[in-house]
Design goal:
By secondary structure, this protein is of the alpha+beta class. It has three domains: about 1-110, Alpha Horseshoe (Serine Threonine Protein Phosphatase 5, Tetratricopeptide repeat), CATH 1.25.40.10; about 120-185; about 190-245, Roll (SH3 type barrels). About 55% of the residues lie in helices and about 15% in strands. It is built from nine helices and seven strands; from the N terminus they run αααααααααβββββββ. The strands form two sheets. Strands 6-5-4-1-7 form a five-stranded antiparallel β-sheet. It has a two-stranded antiparallel ribbon with strand order 2-3. A hairpin with a 4-residue loop joins strand 5 and strand 6. The two termini are about 35 Å apart.
């Protein structure tokens, strides 16, 4: 009953299917994408999700296909799987407003919405970990080039400072942002509906509470079929591996 109600709620969110320009698609991919989009438009969300998964398996990851896949899971009430794919799409295309909007809407209606992010957190989220690394390296390159130029040319100190000071600031800022971004780079999403946190990595161990489907967590350690996790509130406990799906897909 809970899942059907949530699915009905998702319909009210007007989640729309994103399309990919046909000019960049091979005929086979185009045909399969049209089939997946058609299934979605007919509200055959399980079939649509399976088709999008097949497209990803065959042609690799795309922000648009991941977005469509996430929408399909959201419409089924499978919040965990939806959040995994929204996060993957967001990492590929962090400034896409449709991805950010739908991910926020689904999180809100599933009771996963956290406190409003600060300016600094929004700034860090505006670029991916890789992009922050590139920005930092560009700043370092400018610094190195500037200092190297002083050995070859007579450059006024004031002019040099106008170049090097901003470059140094950008390098430090980007480096710090990359560090913070990396701390959650290998996080996972809880994908099971019922998730009891245990004090030890055994089925028979006592529970310390529960954690919602769709919650993003950090993996601390592994033990056989269990993982010790920690969420954004500081809550910790052991969960079965099958209850989690990493945002960065495991290499098959």
């Amino acid at each position: 009953m809970k899942r059907s109600c949530l699915s009905a709620l998702m319909l009210c969110l007007m989640l729309t299917v994103s399309t990919i320009p046909q000019t960049v698609l091979a005929d086979a991919l185009d045909s399969k994408l049209q089939q997946a989009n058609l299934a979605y438009s007919k509200q055959q969300y399980q079939e649509a999700a399976a088709s999008y998964e097949e497209l990803i398996d065959q042609y690799g990851y795309s922000a648009n296909i991941l977005f469509n896949l996430a929408n399909s899971y959201a419409q089924q009430g499978r919040i965990g799987k939806a959040m995994v794919n929204y996060q993957r799409a967001h990492r590929i295309s962090p400034n896409d407003p449709d991805i950010t909007r739908n991910m926020t809407l689904v999180a809100q209606h599933a009771g996963l919405f956290e406190k409003e992010k600060s300016f600094g957190e929004n700034l860090i989220d505006s670029f991916t970990f890789n992009q922050w690394c590139i920005i930092a390296l560009c700043g370092i390159f400018i610094l190195s080039t500037g200092y190297g130029a002083t050995c070859l040319f007579k450059i006024k100190k004031r002019v040099l400072n106008l170049i090097l000071v901003p470059a140094g600031f950008i390098s430090l800022l980007a480096g710090a942002a990359a560090f913070v971004s990396y701390s959650s780079y290998y996080d996972a999403i809880v994908i099971d509906q019922e998730n009891l946190l245990r004090i030890a990595p055994f089925e028979a161990s006592e529970t310390t509470g529960s954690i919602k489907e769709g919650r993003q967590v950090t993996t601390i350690k592994n033990h056989q079929q269990f993982q010790l996790i920690k969420d954004k509130t500081g809550q910790t406990g052991w969960l079965p591996r099958k209850a989690l799906e990493p945002i960065v897909p495991e290499i098959k």
